Amino acid sequence: MDEAPPPLDPREEFFELVSSVRALVGFHEMTGAWGLPLHGPGGPSVVEEAPAAQAPVMPTTPTPSAPEQGRSYAAAPGPGRAFVAPTFAMPQAPVAAPVQQASPARAPSLRAEMLTPEARVERLHLLQAEVAGCTRCGLSVTRTNTVFARGNPLSDLCFVGEGPGFDEDLSGEPFVGPAGQLLDKMIVAMGYRRDEVYICNIVKCRPPENRKPDPDEMEACRGYLVTQLELVRPKFIVALGATAIQGLLGTTEGITRLRGKWKMYKGVPVMPTFHPAYLLRQPTAKRDTWTDLQEVMARLGKKPPVRA
Q1: Entry pTM
Q2: Which of 29, 86, 279, 293 has the lowest CB atom count within 10 Å?
């Protein structure tokens, strides 16, 4: 009498199961099919054909991953109905969406350091034209002209003031009144000509009665100033007065505590000092201001011009 075969080792049975699963996964990856085949060694099972006109039922959640897309699924079996085999479809290459060209107005801007000097100057002109039509705050209602800048837009040295005054509002140019005339003398004393440096303000419109700009007015103009300084790319900035340094750095400290102490604005050294309008009222403060400007000159490698 033949002996019964020994029982299958569980480890061998597990190995065969793992091998079968791997083979099935490989079949899925190769064909893109989904589901289990309904036939074995005895031949195919009797199944019900899915209607040709019936739209494939796709699962809604979770969304199939990329290799699973392109498969169609048959309906689930119901009472008294034979199981409907899934229909297999080979995955098709995704259809590329038509490329739409972005309009120049929405195209991403290059970083300023990647632009040529000519391109930076051209973009400053475009920014100035945008400022001229600005209505972001109430100052646009009372202004005569917007006041953008003056001087060399490629200068290593930039002066930032508070805002336009009466004379600047009429002319559309910063620092042309009495305070501007004193600033010109300070610039010459540093060894520069008037238009060799770049001069702008925190706000581009005159506050009524030459008052200090309100926080919301400064915030409305901040984007213009940030872009302006990014395009100019000065090596050093002189902040003229409390509003200038507060607008640049967001600090609330007064100019008396800040002046003469180097600060940083987006990686650019900033020297806070008194505003020329304050020097007209307090001439004794000119000595401290000159000390601050000499610090800037030393960083720039400049020496005061020799007087005859």
Answers
A1: 0.65
A2: 29
